[in-house]
Model the fold of this input.
Amino acid sequence: MSIPVLTTDRLILRPFVHEDLSVLAVLHAEESFWWYPLRGGMSMEQTTGFLVRTIERYETDGFGIEALIDRQSGAMIGWAGLAVPHFLPEVLPAVEVGWRLSGRYRGRGLATEAGAAALHWGFTGGELDRIVSIYEPENVASGKVMEHLGLVPYLTTTHPERGETMIVTELTRARWQARQAGG
Done:
């Protein structure tokens, strides 16, 4: 399965390429970008590993998060999309919708817009029957985005390595279709 380029009114989601490393490293170094779950930014070495794994997973998983581009400026402002949540084996098999944005782009509905595009593709082109999203309860903003997108809590668990409480939400294709039909 090839990773699609998704376009919304304000955003483009496109597969990452190795040449994205320098821009991604700046985003990942931003402390608030990775506050949940790392409580700080990523180093260049960590970002390099992240980018290599992401690109490899396009092939091995058939899904992977994508560079999030602001259509107006052409700037990479974060990432979003669908990926297998390998870090939480108890929910597998699953595909997760997720997003991370640079601080100056938060609070504008962009995470919801990107998440909606990823869900649409996942349930149509990706032929998924269920998509999850995972957050820490303290990350109220992400929880609200999930709620806006129609995901509902189904499991409270603990991160297997870090010990933080995590809420797993889900959206089934049938529920997504009903929401689409309802406007």
Remarks:
- The first strand starts at residue 6 and ends at 7.
- The beta strands are 6-7, 11-14, 64-70, 76-83, 96-101, 130-135, 152-158, 165-172.
